[in-house]
Specification:
Elements: H1 2-42, E1 49-54, H2 62-77, E2 82-87, H3 96-104, E3 110-114, H4 137-156, E4 160-167, E5 171-175, H5 182-185, E6 189-192, H6 195-203, E7 207-210, H7 213-221, E8 227-231, H8 232-237, E9 246-248, E10 256-262, H9 263-267, H10 271-305, E11 309-310, H11 316-324, H12 327-334, H13 339-350
Parallel strand pairs: 1-2, 1-3, 6-7, 6-8, 9-11
Antiparallel strand pairs: 3-10, 4-10, 5-8, 5-9
Helix pairs in contact: 2-10, 4-13
Length: 352
């Protein structure tokens, strides 16, 4: 009997000695669960996905402003789970015409491309750059809103997703000499931003060629060109006044640039993150349109401060000569696009 009592005491003592160790194990297990939860909650604040975007324009240009805004909003909305590294001013040597292929080749994840040169991929992208078709910002916004599904479809065929559209200030001519009459157009060796604009300028007797922006600037500095077709925004961003001291606001077009991303990269994101990226894109587009309201006046002020003479309004004979060459490119473009796209331009032309 005494031996049985002693054995029972030994078992109770052993049990008491084991209890602190069991409690410690339980405590450690709960602590690990708590740490895991903390790390899980903190994960979205660290960069999990890094995208690389590009534009051939400077950061101060309206395209550059858009990419900067978009990157900031994406990081903010996704709590840092998606970050975007932007490259500006053609640092990667990827002009707008090459940007779709660059995404397909995975050199970049996305970018902001001037739409005109993308016409080589699909004619729909030439819509906003057609000569003298869209003549006001309100019409530009409406026309591009109608064309948006067509842009989206064309990009989808290349494995890309449209993010947002930027409407640019209207296009004019930067030149090294005043343009006061039709005869002055014949003296121009001018860079244009797509093949249609090259055709229109050639119809007036000018020597014209489509070139990426950086190549055009280099040729101006080497005195191979004496004029550039671009907006006040594009010219001010690159300080064209160093070589081209005259600007003639011919209102040739109110063009656009299009920001897009690899569909594969976008679809790899969780659905909630995708929604946040799209919301950031929508906010960027709205911000870009608001910026446009004062952009032309700000550009003109900077240009005048730097010695640019602005012929506003443009001389009527110059506009008349240019408009003569506009009908053929529009008619040819309409044969390359769906009836829906042709209808958008017909509507825009009736708004004048």
């Amino acid at each position: 009997m005494t031996e049985q009592i002693s054995a029972a005491k030994r078992r109770r003592a052993a049990g008491l000695r084991r209890m602190p160790w069991l409690a410690l194990r339980k405590f450690l297990a709960l602590a690990l669960v708590a740490v895991g939860a903390i790390l899980h909650d903190a994960a979205p604040s660290s960069a999990q996905v890094a995208w690389r975007f590009a534009t051939e324009y400077p950061q101060s240009n309206i395209s550059g402003v858009g990419l900067t805004t978009f990157a900031r909003l994406v990081s903010l909305r996704t709590k840092g789970s998606v970050t975007i590294a932007n490259t500006f001013d053609d640092q990667l040597k990827i002009g707008s015409a090459k940007m779709l292929q660059a995404v397909e080749d995975r050199r970049i994840t996305g970018g902001d491309a001037f739409a005109g040169p993308l016409e080589a991929s699909d004619a729909i992208f030439g819509l906003a750059s057609l000569p003298f078709a869209v003549q006001s910002v309100d019409v530009a916004k409406a026309a591009n809103g109608r064309a948006r599904p067509l842009y989206e479809w064309a990009l989808a065929q290349r494995g890309l997703r449209l993010l947002y559209i930027t409407i640019w200030p209207s296009t004019g001519l930067w030149s090294s000499r005043p343009i006061v009459g039709a005869d002055d157009l014949r003296t121009l060796a001018v860079r244009t931003y797509d093949n249609n604009s090259a055709e229109v300028l050639r119809s007036t007797g000018a020597t014209a060629e489509y070139l990426p922006f950086n190549e055009a600037v280099a040729k101006v500095k080497n005195h191979q060109l004496n004029a550039i077709l671009t907006s006040g925004d594009g010219g001010a961003g690159r300080k064209l006044w160093d070589d081209l001291e005259y600007f003639t606001p011919i209102n040739y077009a109110i063009p656009i640039s299009i920001a897009f991303v690899s569909a594969e990269a976008f679809e790899a994101l969780p659905k909630q993150v995708q929604d946040e990226v799209l919301q950031a894109a929508a906010e960027t587009e709205a911000s870009q349109f608001e910026l446009l309201a004062t952009r032309t006046a700000e550009n003109y002020a900077r240009m005048r401060e730097n010695g640019v003479t602005i012929a506003d309004p443009a001389p009527a004979p110059v506009i008349a000569a240019l408009k003569k060459g506009a009908e053929t490119p529009i008619a040819q473009w309409k044969t390359k696009v769906p009836a829906e796209a042709a209808g958008i331009i017909d509507w825009a032309l009736r708004q004048k």
